Amino acid sequence: xxxxxxxxxxxxxxxxxxxxxxxxxxxxxxxxxxxxxxxxxxxxxxxxxxxxxxxxxxxxxxxxxxxxxxxxxxxxxxxxxxxxxxxxxxxxxxxxxxxxxxxxxxxxxxxxxxxxxxxxxxxxxxxxxxxxxxxxxxxxxxxxxxxxxxxxxxxxxxxxxxxxxxxxxxxxxxxxxxxxxxxxxxxxxxxxxxxxxxxxxxxxxxxxxxxxxxxxxxxxxxxxxxxxxxxxxxxxxxxxxxxxxxxxxxxxxxxxxxxxxxxxxxxxxxxxxxxxxxxxxxxxxxxxxxxxxxxxxxxxxxxxxxxxxxxxxxxxxxxxxxxxxxxxxxxxxxxxxxxxxxxxxxxxxxxxxxxxxxxxxxxxxxxxxxxxxxxxxxxxxxxxxxxxxxx
Amino acid sequence: xxxxxxxxxxxxxxxxxxxxxxxxxxxxxxxxxxxxxxxxxxxxxxxxxxxxxxxxxxxxxxxxxxxxxxxxxxxxxxxxxxxxxxxxxxxxxxxxxxxxxxxxxxxxxxxxxxxxxxxxxxxxxxxxxxxxxxxxxxxxxxxxxxxxxxxxxxxxxxxxxxxxxxxxxxxxxxxxxxxxxxxxxxxxxxxxxxxxxxxxxxxxxxxxxxxxxxxxxxxxxxxxxxxxxxxxxxxxxxxxxxxxxxxxxxxxxxxxxxxxxxxxxxxxxxxxxxxxxxxxxxxxxxxxxxxxxxxxxxxxxxxxxxxxxxxxxxxxxxxxxxxxxxxxxxxxxxxxxxxxxxxxxxxxxxxxxxxxxxxxxxxxxxxxxxxxxxxxxxxxxxxxxxxxxxxxxxxxxxxxxxxxxxxxxxxxxxxxxxxxxxxxxxxxxxxxxxxxxxxxxxxxxxxxxxxxxxxxxxxxxxxxx
Lengths: 391, 465
Known about the structure:
The complex is a heterodimer.
Chain A: H1 8-33, H2 41-44, E1 46-55, H3 60-69, E2 76-92, H4 99-111, E3 119-124, E4 127-132, H5 139-145, E5 155-168, H6 173-186, E6 195-199, H7 201-229, H8 236-265, H9 271-301, H10 307-339, H11 345-374, H12 379-390
Antiparallel strand pairs in A: 1-5, 1-6, 2-4, 2-5, 3-4
Helix pairs in contact in A: 1-8, 1-11, 3-6, 7-8, 7-9, 8-9, 8-11, 9-10, 9-11, 10-11
Chain B: H1 2-22, E1 29-31, E2 41-43, H2 51-54, E3 56-63, H3 72-88, E4 95-99, E5 103-109, H4 114-122, E6 127-131, H5 150-155, H6 160-165, E7 177-180, E8 184-191, E9 199-205, H7 207-219, E10 225-229, E11 232-235, E12 246-253, H8 255-269, E13 274-282, H9 284-337, H10 344-373, H11 378-410, H12 418-451, H13 453-458
Antiparallel strand pairs in B: 1-2, 3-5, 3-13, 4-5, 6-7, 6-10, 8-9, 9-12, 10-11
Helix pairs in contact in B: 1-9, 1-12, 3-4, 3-8, 9-10, 9-12, 10-11, 10-12, 11-12
């Protein structure tokens, strides 16, 4: 059996190489931006508007002007996706009951062309508006497909859709209304594809407090849980400390990565990030427990063997399980990353990363650390033990 | 073997029930025990979807005055006024909740016009005393209905629809308002002096409005007068005599009704002013796209997991796959039955629980393989595998369940409510997994190995060993 535990110094080195740069990046981010990560409006308060303009192409400076005119001259603006061509068929005569039928009629018609895309059927003031995102459809095709619903007042026009995301400070409702009126004047906003969120600093502070409390509670309860679960094993406390170390290891890796992604891609720490981190903690402890459990079982079975051998054996015995389990979780996460919507992708990515370091840390941090501890290789603890033995 | 057959029957019945719950149906399930034509038990399982999936508006309002200056009842009454106004907008699926000591949370699925919705909510409540002259004996049909008055048209911004649908007087004109809530000084519930058992509401009118009220009541003795809050007729008492400084509204009120009405009269004029602390609006198209993508991702992920288990663990893999199918059905049925509101994070939590649901099976199967390699007989290896893996499965799942508990509590903070859904579905998945990984998988595995006994004895690779 290959001795995995023997190489423990290498694992600790690898961990350090992951964690230390992360800490440096966080430090750099802290000195330059005032926080180790970019904080989202969940924690910092503020506003976000995701806008899809239908009609004239709206430029970044026009958006900036609108917000500046309403007292917010420091907004962050990002374009969302590519501009696309859209057919707007307005004032069409559909009975409400026929809505689904018309939607599928349009969908079928669009599906026969090579560049089919989103269709939405919206009711506005008792009239219907149909949206077809496809530049290659001819107006005549639309007229044919929808012939029975088209009236004299029906208009069919081709517009350009441009998506923007604007992130600003918290505005009260009167200002929000004003901003929306002015944005709508630039070019009509598609309210079906609109998202806005405003969070006051009071709420942000509450979330921050709750988040810190959640992290603290998780640390305390999980430590307690491990100590209780391993109470019958000699040195139960050690298992607790090693599992917690693995957990802190994972948190630091994820935080470092998030800090870097914040600087590079503008990723923000939000309530879901914290959720991902705490979930990672849960899984990390889960992994550590499975290996520890095997050590717990193997100790009385192999009394003659040195501790290091028992640990190594336990590690090998559980490694299949660890890998197979991780693999399945990864299948699901990769599927969501590849095929799921963008709104959840940062969350899944962090979870994925956390799970990866979680598997690594329980096998290559928590378990080797138990051996190091047993052998008195951990500097501070070693001295303490020596002192105890001397007295 | 007998116990396994019994378990199999339980599992099959459970799965059929879950499948029946999961398949969407437009009809209620009704049970009529005593055959009287009216159902005694109506059951309808609908999957509630969060605002991020159906689109809509969520607003968190907070009192602008300090908590010490009002009572909890006042806040509840404020929430009720908000609720009345939302109903007036014709939104039936809205939910309004009082949160903490000074907040009201409103969820309006399908609303995509935050400007109008919020301005309607924030309007000051309008209490009116309306002339119902000539309607003596017909007031019943107005109570609980919305009526249109001249003052509403003057003071409020009503939508076209509201103006069109609110009831008008017999001459098709708006009703005439005599005084509004701003003319009231006080209102309180009291026991009716004459009737003794019934309750009444005493109210006082500010001096500057007393003359108008006196003239009106003098001319309408014996006729009804409506008390209207935000357009809705609360009651229509009959004017008994000329009133100037105030009066008593009598009716067959219970104590509770009288107190509520008094509170409405008092606070109708000015409930606790509210300000928006947080608002989220999501367009319907965005939500629909998210649902479709999540379902697609989920299906692909599940297929990969099923295939992996089958290839890697062979016969036990079949058992695990069947157990996973039961697991998914159970989860989806419970989402409807509990019910769990599905949001995007909640769906993600569920998908991740699917990914980890096989963990229990993997622990057991790896154990079985080890026991087989150690030379044990198949039956013995299976028994040991299930026995030994249990503590590991229990302890390791518990740690994540604890974390879910913490996340759920974190999600109770209004600004982090998105987290709760994830915590609930993940925890539910982990708990169900304790059942499916052990009992369901074991049942399937013992039955399959029972049937395929000889084949497996001769081909150990079928067990993945």
